[in-house]
Design brief:
Mean pLDDT of chain A: 90
Largest sheet of chain A: 2 strands, antiparallel
Mean pLDDT of chain B: 85
Chains: A mainly alpha (323), B mainly alpha (306), C alpha/beta (243)
Largest sheet of chain B: 2 strands, antiparallel
Shape of chain B: globular
Low-confidence stretches of chain A: none
Number of helices of chain B: 11
Low-confidence stretches of chain B: none
Strand content of chain A: under 5%
Number of helices of chain A: 13
Helix content of chain B: over 70%
Largest interface: A-B, 42 and 42 residues
Order of helices and strands of chain A: HHHHHEEEHHHHEHHHH
Oligomer: heterotrimer
Strand order of the largest sheet of chain B: 1-2
Distance between the termini of chain B: 44 Å
Structural class of chain B: mainly alpha
Number of strands of chain B: 2
Order of helices and strands of chain B: HHHHEEHHHHHHH
Strand content of chain B: under 5%
Chain lengths: 323, 306, 243
């Protein structure tokens, strides 16, 4: 318990210290990179609520990232730049879509659930492509970043960085509270032994659906942040690859652990960046200049191997399971 | 709107349907029998398309190209089974999904490195390029007609194998009760490899045939794979009959939706409504259909069990 | 307390339950016995709500529960234990029982930690004490012995403060010593609880039951006190094959 607290404090101190240090040595690229990772970590944390604690293998979580981002983008397109409004809509719209998708798919289980969540997300992806008004396949530029009148200026990269950090920590704490609450205990129990849970008197469906909606809403917030981060919103945000990436972040970090998804998000994106650097470094040996775009050829096997041999994730290295 | 046009689009729908069926049949059997979720099934489809294209160019002979394409999909499918999937049979679905997701990244990138990221279009031999007259005033491409015929022949052969042979009996038994088949002393591992190879070859065949119709590009496998998931959810896991019916429904609904939803909405409601909602609705149609089927029949139209 | 009329359930041609009439009185321990394949499992599943009957009715505490799903019956006070041990292996013994307490309380919450909630933890500790697991509260259920897991199941059933305890083969798979401990535990419980006991261990059945119903081929062939059941010729025929 104590060592865990020390790790948390160290990690947070590191993240707080990063912007001034990187600015000082002129590596602002890393501020941008870590900000993106922290935003994706919020999405991964939300997925962990249903995947890790709820046992719901949702292969469509990127949908809410997209809905959150499009909510911000579309409102900005029509001139509504108030951040409170935009983010509330992003969260609300994601929750509603999660309610609709969850209501249908949670009635099923196993492979069906995986295929259905994937299919519905693909549907939203195609919907994004067919929205010609909002750029269709090419996506849309965010007209202006979300405005929080005088309170926070997202155009300041470092302010935005700290906001992302605070929101990431808040989401970790929120999920921590939820899974240890009365509600969360039932959610975990339904994953552990469904028949038992029914026999005690808890029907799993409403608990799972509620968790699904909460996770969707939280991921919608991540989407709103992501739109502000990239300034560009594309249907590709909702693609099946993105959903797969989020799942990997949860698994690499360690399922059903508090810090796991955050560790996983860092590990996943760092691996990606590392492979790009590696390929660029190797390329000149073969007389080529730029191989970074082919990083997936290495990432694929790395992921396959991590599934086969590295089952417990990063959190398993740092601490033992909860006692 | 002429009936000839509707008829042609209906045939196009059937043609998409048989392509989906070839994919769905293998996938649903692998799922039903081995309880394995193989996302890389779409990669085999892609491999079939690319290898046929490359081998046809290389040998200058269409049949040699098709043969090499099929063989390539089969061999690569078997290799994938032996090298990675075997380690995953005992794992849960989550692990299978993640590992085969990694395989997809690998295959898509490999294809992009070898042939580039741009779309390619497969060339057909002269005799497959023409049109036939089905009845007065209606012509239809020879190639698409051939795809339908080949697909239906495969469906019949598959039906025969599954319902009339010993292998088929084992496959059906395996889809309903795995432990029982093992208890009968059947070599499960061999059965798995055979079924998997079967599925890989069918996926390859679908890719071979799809090449000249759709664009050949990295990632083409996943676009069809997700439609195949819809087919399987509608048809029911482990059921070849369900796969056929589901595939034809999805193929026809999708094709007709794309062809006629926009004009239909334009005439019925307003041109602007058709313009705005038509394409969006058409692309969502099969997923909405899936939702409806799920609401009414959660186990699909033809559940293999019971 | 519980009244079953004409309960019938068929699987294809097999009539697993064939017009069962059955009654449990307030405060009694009513055992259900039967040779293998007599339909006890099917019967119990219909009482608990895991299986719906083809025809017939189940009344519990005065209301018709025939079509009610399992979780709702549990909320009305019908608690069951499972034939095959069914606990939460990744929860501690205390958390297993605390969850059952929570089910009774009917309240939920999204913020306050359940583990620190005295209104859940204290009754859970008491239930663990009652079944003799007071020293094992913080052990993961997976690390408990088989006998202890069965005790834990009883504790969970108790913690819901049920009006009727449905115990499906609580002695299954136990050694002699463990069985004796379970019998002692149940004979203490039966002082205050109404119990349906499905069990193959005849020693336990005859020591614990106030009345016994004998199920053969989906029918109740006799319901009576243990002494009379012991003397019943039809029962002897069914059990010992004395044709």
């Amino acid at each position: 318990m104590r060592s865990r607290l020390i790790l948390w404090v160290l990690a947070i101190a590191l993240l707080v210290a990063l912007p001034p240090v990187m600015t000082a040595i002129g590596q602002t690229f890393y501020i941008d990179l870590v900000r993106r990772i922290m935003i994706l970590a919020i999405a991964a944390v939300s997925l962990n609520l249903i995947l890790g604690y709820g046992g719901l293998v949702s292969f469509g979580h990127a949908a809410y990232l997209g809905i959150g981002a499009y909510s911000v983008g579309i409102l900005a397109f029509y001139g509504f730049t108030n951040g409170w409004l935009q983010w509330a809509v992003a969260i609300g719209a994601s929750a509603l879509v999660a309610l609709a998708i969850g209501a249908v798919s949670i009635r099923t289980s196993g492979v069906y659930f995986i295929m259905i969540t994937l299919a519905f997300t693909q549907m939203l992806y195609y919907l994004g492509i067919s929205l010609e008004e909002f750029g269709g396949d090419d996506g849309m530029r965010l007209k202006a970043k979300s405005q929080f009148a005088g309170l926070i200026d997202l155009r300041e990269p470092i302010t935005f960085y700290y906001l992302a950090l605070v929101l990431m920590l808040a989401s970790v704490y929120l999920v921590y509270r939820i899974v240890n609450s009365r509600f969360g205990v039932v959610l975990r129990a339904a994953k552990s032994n469904e028949a038992r849970t029914r026999a005690i008197g808890f029907p799993p469906y409403p608990y799972r659906l509620a968790a699904f909606v909460m996770a969707g809403a939280m991921c919608g917030l991540a989407g709103a942040l992501y739109a502000n981060h990239t300034n560009y919103i594309v249907p590709g945000l909702m693609s099946w690859q993105h959903s797969g990436d989020l799942m990997f972040m949860v698994i690499l970090g360690g399922m059903a652990s508090t810090a796991g998804p955050v560790l996983g998000a860092f590990a996943f994106i760092f691996t990606e960046e590392f492979l790009k650097v590696l390929l660029n470094w190797v390329a000149p040996i073969f007389g080529k200049r730029d191989w970074a775009e082919y990083w997936a050829i290495l990432m694929g096997p790395v992921l396959v191997l991590s599934v086969i041999f590295f089952r417990r994730g990063l959190a398993g290295i740092f601490y033992k399971p909860d006692a | 709107m002429s009936w000839i046009l509707v008829f042609e689009q209906l045939l196009n729908g059937v043609q998409l349907g048989v392509t989906l069926f070839l994919m769905a049949a293998g996938l649903t059997l692998v799922l039903g029998i081995m309880n394995l979720v193989n996302l890389a099934h779409g990669s085999l489809y892609m491999v079939g398309a690319y290898l046929t294209l490359a081998a046809t160019q290389w040998t200058g002979n269409y049949f040699a190209g098709v043969a090499l394409g099929l063989l390539g999909a089969l061999v690569i499918g078997m290799l994938v089974e032996v090298i990675t999937l075997r380690a995953l049979y005992e794992r849960d679905h989550l692990d299978q999904v993640l590992a085969t997701f990694g395989l997809i990244l690998f295959f898509n990138e490999l294809v992009a490195i070898l042939w580039g990221r741009a779309s390619l279009y497969a060339q057909l031999p002269e005799w497959l390029r023409g049109h036939v007259e089905l009845f007065a005033g209606s012509t239809y491409p020879v190639y698409r007609l051939s795809v339908i015929i080949v697909g239906l022949i495969v469906a019949v052969v598959l039906w025969y194998v599954v319902t009339r042979t010993r292998l088929g009996m084992l496959i059906r038994a395996g889809a309903t009760n795995r432990t029982m088949v093992a208890a009968l002393g059947v070599n499960i591992r061999l059965l798995y490899t055979v079924v998997f190879g079967f599925g890989a070859a069918l996926a390859g065949l679908a890719g071979v045939m799809a090449g000249p119709i759709y664009s050949v590009q990295p990632g083409m496998g996943e676009l069809i794979l997700i439609q195949v998931f819809v087919v399987i959810v509608i048809g029911g896991i482990g059921s070849v009959r369900g796969a056929l019916v589901g595939a034809l429904i999805v193929g026809v609904v999708d094709t007709l939706g794309r062809a006629f939803l926009k004009p239909a909405l334009s005439t019925m409601i307003s041109p602007t409504a058709g313009e705005a909602a038509g394409p969006a609705l058409a692309s969502m149609l099969i997923y909405l259909l899936m939702a409806v089927v799920l609401a009414l029949r959660p186990a699909g139209l033809f559940p293999a069990r019971g | 307390m519980l009244e079953v009329r004409g309960l019938t359930k068929a699987f294809g041609a097999l009539r697993a339950c064939d017009g069962i009439d059955f009654e449990v009185r307030e405060g009694e321990t009513h055992a259900v016995i039967g040779p293998n394949g007599a339909g006890t499992t099917t019967f119990i599943s219909q009482l608990a709500g895991n299986l719906l009957p083809d025809s017939g009715s189940v009344h519990f505490a005065g209301s018709d529960v025939t079509r009610l799903p399992a979780p709702q019956r549990a909320r009305m006070g019908l608690a069951r234990s499972f034939q095959i041990t069914s606990v939460y292996p990744d929860f501690t013994a205390l958390d297993n029982v605390a969850l059952a307490v929570q089910a009774r309380s009917g309240r939920t919450g999204f913020w306050k930690a359940a583990r620190g909630d005295a209104s859940l933890v204290e009754p859970a500790k008491q239930a663990l004490q009652a079944v003799g697991l007071g020293e094992r509260t913080h052990v993961f259920a997976a690390n408990l012995s088989h006998g202890e897991q069965r005790q834990l199941e009883v504790a969970m059933a108790l913690a819901t403060e049920p009006r009727l305890l449905l115990l499906d083969e609580p002695m299954a798979g136990m050694g002699t010593e463990e069985s004796q401990r379970m019998i002692t535990l149940l004979s203490r419980l039966k002082q205050t609880k109404t119990i349906i006991l499905v069990e193959h261990d005849m020693d336990a059945v005859f020591r614990l039951a106030d009345r016994i119903s004998v199920l053969v081929y989906g029918r109740v062939i006799a319901t009576d006190t243990p002494e009379r059941i012991r003397a019943n010729t039809e029962v002897r025929k069914a059990y010992l094959g004395e044709d």
